[in-house]
Design goal:
Elements (H helix, E strand, L loop, with lengths): L1 H10 L2 E5 L1 H8 L5 H13 L3 E2 L6 E2 L12 H5 L1 H11 L7 E5 L17 E5 L14 E8 L10 H21 L6 E7 L2 E7 L4 E4 L2 E2 L4 H12 L12 E3 L11 E6 L6 E11 L12 E9 L2 E15 L5 H11 L10 E6 L27 E2 L43 E8 L4 E2 L6 H20 L2 E2 L8 E4 L8 E4 L6 E2 L19 H5 L3 H11 L2 H12 L17 H18 E3 L5 H10 L3 H8 L3 H15 L11 H22 L6 E3 H8 L37 E5 L5 E5 L1
Parallel strand pairs: 1-9, 6-7
Antiparallel strand pairs: 1-17, 2-3, 4-5, 5-6, 7-8, 8-9, 8-10, 11-12, 12-13, 13-14, 14-15, 15-18, 16-18, 19-21, 20-23, 21-22, 24-25, 26-27
Helix pairs in contact: 5-7, 9-13, 9-17, 13-17, 16-17
Length: 728
Amino acid sequence: MADFQTTLTTDLPKFREVELQGLMDAVLYPVSPHRLARVCKKLASNGYIKGPVQKLRWRCLPKHPSAAQNKAQVERFLEDVVDAVANLSTAKLHINVLADGSSTPTDSRDKNSRPDAFFYLGKRQSSARDVRWADIVMPTEFGNSYAAEKEYNMENETDHYDKVMWSMYHVMRNDARRRFVLGLTCEDAKARLWYNDRCDVVASKEFDIVKDWKQLLRIVVSLQHSTWSELGYDPNTVLLRSDDPEAEPQYDITICNAETRQTTVYRSLELLSDIGMDSMVGHGTRIWRAQKVVAGSPIGPYCVLKDVWTHENCVPEHIFLSEIRERQPERARYFLMPLDYGFVPIGNSGPDNTHKTLRRGKSIPTSGSPVLRTIHIPDGKSGSQNSRRNGIGRPDDVPDLHQEGNRNPALSKHPRQHYRIMFEELGEPVHKLRKFTDVFTAIQGGYEGLYAMHLCGYVHRNVNCGNILLVPASGELGQRGVIMDLEYAKKIDDTREPHDVKTGTEAFMATEVQFAKHIRLDTLRAVKHNSAKAVRARLKSCLESKEPPRAKPLPAFRHNPLHDMESIWWLCIWMLFYLAPAGHPAREQLHNYNKVFRDQDSKRDFLHTSALNRRFNLSYVLHDAEQPLLETIRVNDKQVEWSYEDGKQFLGLLTKASESLSGTFVTLAKATAVDGSAKIPSDQPTRETQSTGKTGKRKQTKEPVAGPSRKLEVYVELPLRKRARTKA
């Protein structure tokens, strides 16, 4: 779970504080003033609320919660409040609350996450172990930032904020039905309401549960009267009951076809990927192996079902694929074939939308500056029995495929919509392949698909080892590589500010994308600025008392086709290091790997003599010669074509060289473990973070070891002009 800790730290070092009333109006079931007044009157008459009219308070809550000798008394007052409201309610759903920080709710993947308390659906239980995480609708954490001498302890306050964010993250990540989740923190008498959907994580301003007791009542009454959908569950996704609490959850998932409006149910059989859930915000992509459901049973061929939250103004993937097939029919084979697709509807409200349906079209007023919180997940929360799926494959020995960079804490202005698409083909991602011929066959196909996108005027922006697949032969099509995950794609000439953080996977990210700057253009201009001719011109201007020409500002950074091609180049280099011959020393290969992929500077130095780098430089020289100077860099079509041809030739050479190989290859992590070398982090390449720079780890799994029958010597140029030899 260290990966998840790093992800939370990187993505959300800050959360946005918002107005309580605005948050409740937007995300909670609406409670009329008349209904709330009626509930208050009944609670008072039944003795749940006591005191003078102007100073009414909860009978079950100590007057000064921080002074309570028994912390359990403070924690469990919520149970009495919920019971009191439930006794007055005729709601169909049964909402209960349980304060049991000593045991853990049931979950198939995590045996250690243990909130102080939680609101849940179902019958009253006495132990958290009798409640499933799938039924928890609002995890709750308590804290006490004041010691007996009333000295403020910032660490304690941060701790229970961290815990509730972890619990909310856990709910969203492990339950495919969740569209949003609520949270509650209580610090002595001060409480906050929390909310998380695929766009934002926010917390309300503090409110006093003693003085502002009606605010807490409003939250409880809203929960008691909510429907499944209003509690954040997707009515189009049904969790199948299982007698085995350890079993992977299965769902019946409905797709409403975007063209025919016909609905079809598909059953998830195996979770192939959920890397999109590693962050509390973002696309939230999940991918399953699935079958069509007829008369309650799955039938027919296996397919791939993808569930994602895309930006509202993005081109739906099925339309994107249709355009490519129409404009580049000879390269259509390098993409997956869509079978069924559509946005997920919610009643008559149209597609499920973070702003229009989840928040009822209401804005959430902020309270000023974001509140700075360094997210630290306590050790007691960090264990997990099951690893995540990274890419469409196994959970181990692959890089962190999460986007790099932390997010702007301002509330998102760009809504996301819930979208599903079913594909015909099942493939193996590059990182699961163990033969170099298969690796480069897959990458060649992905490269052709990438070029088709460029010819259609798009950039992919997220090439990695998990979204280029090797697809088996079918029909008239032979074995081939395909590229997927088109939700990050943008028009090449789109000059709008990007919605997200830097897009891509660090090891495969183009160096300029990592720097978020056109560093090559900056270098070219610096060389020109320091040339003898430029120096003489500046000296002459000074002697003539003229103002020297001002340096031109760098254009705003935008992703261009050469960046996509550079990602393919990095993928090839990475795979040459990633696979090592079984049974042979891998110490030198590990050393070279670390020199290349240490950080963005080492990658830049490694790339500086490549042919692709020269293509970048030529394109940027042409850009600077434009009059008037363009605001963004445009790589002309001829440069893109020439770069594509260079890459095609490069891949051809690699494929031909790989045909002479035989023997068994294993991951570098396995090879170094057998070799006894210092262990390479199994989630290589090391993932940088802007806030911590820490590296996650994954557990190792066994892989067959055998000696190779032939050797391949791969020469790669390393920084400092040294040449290193990797035997494979």
